[in-house]
Structure formats: C-alpha cells, structure tokens
Amino acid sequence: MKKYFKSFLLVLMANVCIITAHAQDTAVNANTDVMRSNGKIYVVMAVVATIVTGLFAYVYSIDKKISKLENK
Fold first, then answer.
1. Is 45 helix (H, G, I), strand (E, B) or coil?
2. For residue 56, what are the domain limits?
3. Residues 47 and 72 in one domain
4. Is 41 exposed, middle or buried (0-12, 13-18, 19+ CB in 10 A)?
5. Do 21 and 43 lie in a common domain?
6. Is residue 23 located within the same domain as residue 43?
7. SS3 track for the chain
8. 40 band by pLDDT with thresholds 50, 70 and 90
9. What is the mean pLDDT of the chain?
C-alpha cells in the first residue's frame, strides 16, 4: 500500500509540474527575456536543479535512516 501511495504521489506531482509549466508558457515575461538574452537563465535553472536534487537526496537518506531504526 505504501509503495502505491508513493507512486501515486510522484505521478500527481509530475502532472502538477507539467500543467504549471504549460500554463506559464503562454505568458511572456520581460524578465525572462532579459535573462535568456544574457544566458543567465541557464545558471538559475542549474542552481534550482542542484537544490532540488540535494533536497531529494536528503529526504531519501533520512527515510533510509528512519526505516533502519524502525526495523530495530
């Protein structure tokens, strides 16, 4: 049951991200145009991706430690 809940939650979060990204695609923002022209948008996206990856790794490690303690 827990495995199915995690899968469902992951799919739900992915769908929300896709819908949000699609909704933002129609609006043109002057700030993003400036950042794209300077090439800084890629730096921002790299930093965001690094932070999100680090958070997921941290949560995964905490989950492993908690599971290990629960089994004892």
1. helix
2. 39-72
3. yes
4. middle
5. no
6. no
7. CHHHHHHHHHHHHHHHHHHHHHHHHCCCCHHHHHHHHHCHHHHHHHHHHHHHHHHHHHHHHHHHHHHHHHHC
8. confident
9. 78
